[in-house]
Amino acid sequence: MILRIDQTDQTPVYQQIRDQIVAAIARGELSVADRLPSVRTLAGDLGVNLHTVNKAYAVLRDEGYLLMRGRSGAVVADFGQTATPERMAANSERLATGLRQLALEHRAQGGAEETFLEAARTQASRVFAEFATESSPEEA
């Protein structure tokens, strides 16, 4: 897994790190129990502050993607073991909030509902086809 920070991107650096790790999990580049680099190592590799990487890891932990094992560091979590009703509700809420914001932006730019829905369907189909596995996280 190679992470790259785009300093010209308006997205906060911790969010860029979070997003790239989630994508690596989705692509299968990171599997359950895989260890991530230490906070210090990743911060040094990326040329960012330790607190930035620590925040990214904390967000990933809170979302159920990572387990923090003290001195052993961060490992990829098994969603079957970390999926609590509260966490599943939070993930659903984050999905709804993100989709709502995208829909609002699309409408503000004069876009039609059907155009938005088609774009969402197309992207979802691409992601699920690209990252297809023998069983999806919801089937496990």
Summarize the structure.
By secondary structure, the chain is mostly helical.
What would the keywords be for this entry?
Transcriptional regulator, GntR family; 140 residues; mainly alpha; 4% strand; 6 helices; Arc Repressor Mutant, subunit A; single chain; two-stranded antiparallel sheet; 2 domains
Question: Can you describe what's shown?
Answer:
This protein has 140 residues and is mostly helical. The chain folds into two domains: 13-76, Orthogonal Bundle (Arc Repressor Mutant, subunit A), CATH 1.10.10.10; 85-131. 59% of the residues lie in helices and 4% in strands. The chain contains six helices and two strands; from the N terminus they run αααββααα. It has helices spanning 13-27, 39-46, 50-62, 79-82, 85-108, 113-130, and strands at residues 66-68, 74-76. The protein has a two-stranded antiparallel sheet. A hairpin with a 5-residue loop joins β1 and β2 (74-76). The longest helix has 24 residues, at 85-108. The radius of gyration is 17 Å and the shape is globular. The two termini are 24 Å apart. The model has no long low-confidence stretch (mean pLDDT 91).
